[in-house]
Write a structure and sequence with these properties.
Helix content is 26%, strand content 16%. By secondary structure, it is an alpha+beta fold. A two-stranded antiparallel ribbon has the order 1-2. The N and C termini lie far apart (77 Å). The mean pLDDT is 87.
Amino acid sequence: MAGRVKHRRRGYTRVSAKHQVTLPVEALQRAGIRTGDTLRAEVRGPGEVLLVRDTDPVAQYAGALTGVYAPGELDELRREWD
């Protein structure tokens, strides 16, 4: 007996009996989501769930350039903005 062939439309997925979905690779790539990223599910409305990366990339790298500016240099630049 031949196995059933699954016909899937590109960009679509189904919810399994265990409430799991497989996200299309192209969607993940375009969103910049990578293996190991933690996602938060937010309900946006009926039939709509938004997945949001749980880490803030800006917060992740904030302070990474410590020591690049001389002491007081950033304060001088901030005063110029006022």
